[in-house]
Amino acid sequence: MPTINEEVVQEYIAGCRKHNQESQYALFKHFHSYAMGICRRYAHNSDEASDILSESFLKIFSHIDRFDESKPFKSWMGKIITNTAIDYYRASLKFVQQDDVAAYENLGSEASVYGKLAYDELLVMIQSLSPAYQTVFNLYAIDGYSHNEIAEMLGITVNTSKSNLHKARRRLQELLDQRTRTAVDNWEDNKD
Amino acid sequence: MKDKHPIDKLFKDGLHAPDLPFDQKDWEMLANKMRPRKKRNMPLLIWMTSGVAAALVLAAILWPTDRHASMKDIQENASGPVQRNTPDSRDTSGAPNTVPPNAPTPIRGKGAETEKLALNTPTDGAAISEKPIDAVSLYPGSPATLPPPLFSPVQNHKPIVAYTVTHLSSNGNEIPAVARTIPATIVSDETTPRRANGERSNTSQRSWALSVIAAPDLSGTQPLSGKLSGNVGLIATYRFNHWLSISGGALYAKKLYRADFADYRPTISWGDRAAIPDLVEANCGVLDIPILANITLKQYDQSSFFVSGGISSYFMLRETYNYIYPPHEYGYLQKPYTLHNRNRHLLGVGNLSIGYRRQLNASLSLTVQPFVKVPLTGIGNGNIKLYSTGVAISADIDLTRRNR
Questions:
Q1: What is the CATH code for B206-403?
Q2: Is B330 within 8 Å of A113 when comparing Cβ atoms?
Q3: Please, are residues B75 and B123 in contact by the beta-carbon 8 Å criterion?
Q4: Domain map of chain B by residue range?
Q5: Does the keyword Transcription regulation feature in the UniProt annotation (chain A) (predicted)?
Q6: Global confidence as pTM
Q7: How large is the ipTM?
Q8: Which of A29, A50, A139, A174 has the highest number of chain B CBs within 10 A, making it the mutation to test binding with B?
Q9: Side-chain half-sphere exposure of A144, counting CA atoms within 13 A
């Protein structure tokens, strides 16, 4: 049985199918935070995130007739946004082929464990990755795609996907360590 | 089930469902993209208009200024049947516009029509006789009946000479000469009407003009530098007197420029991210609404020099930015970012220019006007200090004269 929230969304979607602009605005506003959250993870700055967001909703509104109402709208929308973000950077996605993938297989668990960090801090770190690392990390670590799916989506090999993921993690680990050192230095300065 | 990598878990938990505030600008961007847009080739239009205007200016400079031709026309008018009988009548031959120093004076001649013309050179027309005229007696306090001048040079005041043109009337009756006076056909270097006491008539000097402008320029973060851009538009000018006028209008400006990212300061903070671009390339469509004061510096018979100063409001109709990132293993990253109707800068740009205007005929002149536009505030999404330096070329139509 659909919740009240889902009923409202179904109403918005029905309006969007009729190209009703008020419904489009309502749907956009309802999912803005969720959608923008995805866009920011894949983008390099706020401007580009806004651009990806509008491109995504343009596709959502123009293909809303293809949405299967028996499935969750949020998942369908999330997939469109992810694909739009990939398309946005596709031209600049230059993946580095890594042959010796096995070398990375056992390194993952060495990473330090950090407490919960602020959203903005994490966003800055992920946006500082190169487009290839950022995309693979987003797809695998946050959006839950497998290496096989990522390889298919990006037109790369599974090994390339794995090596890019590993390099992304290593870079993020460096940034986290750097942040910790800065925090410790600041703490010691204040203590003195 | 395999445990999730700690880094993956950290970022997934922290970034998965953020609570971000709704931004109306995001909807406006989407709404703009949903509107179908007609493609326009503005640069081509700008350059074509500039080319035509430049050709016209060249033609104006090379235009032979034959004052004798004007005199010939006058003689023809004088010796033939006189059809014009209003003080506003004027020479339509393209001769320099002139204004009579006199108002109609009743002159009676038996069995004849009389026309009074003030000329600075005598003519040899058989029907024309010469008679010196006292300027004061010719101007009996009715300056409002005189046509206003487009220009009002004050140089070369020469003695006024009147020519009385005698025609045989058809019925032999005396006709008051005042009814046949043709002030506008009078040729004189003195193109500004004077009152009886010698003062100029401000009322008659007031006029409206409309200018069609094309202005290629260089736009960039420094004066006299940047990429080639352009402006086209319409400017209306109201002339108060022979030295002062004000102008206002609307120009569509294409601003193409490249800026260091250090000069680019978007309102939304870029943050301390590593992925900082080197350069920003901009392509903006701007509605420029200027308000200008114009002061005539030097006035000649058919040309003048002037300075203009004023202030413009910029309405950023469309802004497209390309962020160019430093070379990296993933190559150059270039992706355009476009905004529509996002930024407005009221009175945000200063204008300064000097100009040369050349009279083509009674109601049309051409102007060449080097200018610089100085930012008084940050322009566009990046709050860039955007300078424009160029040359405006305009065709100016004197609406007051045309209407008469």
A1: 2.40.160.20
A2: no
A3: yes
A4: 67-204, 206-403
A5: yes
A6: 0.44
A7: 0.85
A8: A50
A9: 6
